[in-house]
Amino acid sequence: MKYKKIREIILGKALDPMKSETRHSMALVAFLAWVGLGADGLSSSAYGPEETFKALGAHTHLGLYMAIATAVTVFIIALAYNQVIELFPTGGGGYRVATKLVGPYLGLISGCALVLDYVLTIAISIASGVDALASFLPLGFQPYKLWAEAFFIGLLIVMNLRGLKEAIQILLPIFIGFVITHLILIVYGIYAHAENLPGLVPGTVNETVSLAGSIGWTGVASMLLLAYSQGGGTYTGLEAVSNNVNLLAEPRERTGKMTMLYMALSLAFTAGGIIMLYLLWDARPTEGQTLNASTFASIISHGNPDSPVANQVMLAVVLAFEAGLLFVAANTGFLGGPSVLSNMAGDSWVPHKFRYLSTRLVTQNGILVMGVAALAILFWTEGSVTLLVVLYSVSVFLTFAISLFGLCLYWVRNRDAGGKWVARLLLSSVGFTICAGILGVLLVEKFMDGGWAAAVIIGGIAALCVWVRNHYRETKRAIHSVDEVFASQPFGPNADAVEPDPDNQTAVFIVGSSKGGGLHALLWVQRMFPGHFRNFIFVNARTVDSHAYGGEGALEQMRHDAESTLEYFVDFCHSHNMASSSYLGFGTDAVDEITRMCEEISNEFPNAIFFTSKLIFASDNWMSRLLHNQAALAVQRRLHLEGLQMVILPMKV
């Protein structure tokens, strides 16, 4: 079986990016966006509340404050990020906010933190999901958890390479199952202890006063702040919608806000409700089980005391849905991470190839990088959820803090927006204070328990990004100098079009967006083969990448720019009485599209020889080959295999 057929069976048939209905069929409505992007936030209720409650130690009565604070914080962050959706309706989220409102280098830090955040989204969700499954398996399964996690990551990589909407639709029943089962458990769990609710508040206040008498109010405040910060993982995922607005159905702003509302309501109810269950059911850690598993087991047994076997089955179903939702949440990392890398590639912080789409119109390179990085972190941490939560929380709240600081600056600078700016500045300021406070506590209290690793990883990624951008900047400057040299080339006096004769010798130039590069190739051929070629054909295949495919009108603008460049070359030839024409194509793989077009041209012009330019660096190494598309060599090999002649012209930079 041929490679292409196997690939089609696994990943699905190629999609045509130029059909207008293709993007609309892939765009997510609010409900599917809630499933695909909101699962990250909702799934954090599987580990965030547990970390908060465990940090309280024996003083579990303080859990009431944590339940209230958790629900309030979710809505504050969600409402603040609604402003991001309004201001940046094309997506980019925390990275774009920080870049535009604070500065490119803080934008870089935010972007690096987001990339790590999404890698950890995959790692921690898979690790927590396997932990949930292992809670009703024998203890002998524990040594195999890491390999099970690796298997699930591999499965999600394949699903996402097929396409984001397909992945979401497959995972939809799991999401709905989680919501229904946890809604029933939370409502019944609170109802079963309804007689304790009237005395809960006065009892909590009395115990808090008694505790303050022992360790002082400062000690109580410190304990609450640490527990609150430990549960920072609960709020992760709220930024996913603003990062991926470009994936939403039109009108994007309205769809994004509706999705954010679904996320806030579901997460506030679930996370706050689970902490209340811990408090009311006197939850205690059990070896080999999560706190959710032991608490849910008590609730199910209470509701059906005479059927222990049925209770075990029901608990298994609940935990299976919980694990399933965590796998859905891991999928968010495969949606959001490549999107952030794509935005950073647009600003030349990372290799441009992270903008390229596969035949299924997903950012394939980003998906693979996120999956491999998540595997590496899982094996490094040995799947420890506690360590992963620390790394995760530091990266998330660094992004939150920078983004909300950017919003504060924006509203201070735009005080002419009526009375709305005051309320929005206040909301952004409160959100920034909360997020910066959590970040500070985590870095201080958990520095030796993983906080240092998050700082080192983010710093290392940022340093590499600066090197990449400097390289691209120098290359762009060199190409611009070539354009300037050829910009002064005069047009000839002829004003009439000269049509090519298929029987004449033909020079076919594969050109890009650089007019200087195209003229360099044309003049080089005329100098080396004077009077030999009578036809001059220009071919351009534009890559439909994530930016071109991200919004309405982007493809049309790309087509206009490409046609304008080709028209320049053809007009230049006509002005010198040279027969000329052009061909334009679009595809997700430039090499495939150029090869296809060249084969068609060779049928029409049998005496054609193909030419293109390739950047030549003084110090060529694996890094320069990684950063620059090696399309010229790939096309030459493909054409040679078809018996067509192609010459690569060096363009030193």
Automatic annotation (TrEMBL):
It comes from the Bacteria. The keyword Transmembrane helix applies. Keywords: Membrane, Transmembrane, Transmembrane helix. It is found in: Membrane. The chain crosses the membrane at residues 61-81, 102-126, 146-163, 170-191, 211-228, 261-281, 313-341, 362-381, 387-412, 424-444, 450-468. Pfam families: AA_permease_2. GO terms for molecular function: transmembrane transporter activity. GO terms for cellular component: membrane. The keyword Transmembrane helix applies. It is a multi-pass membrane protein. This is Amino acid permease. It comes from Pseudoduganella rivuli.
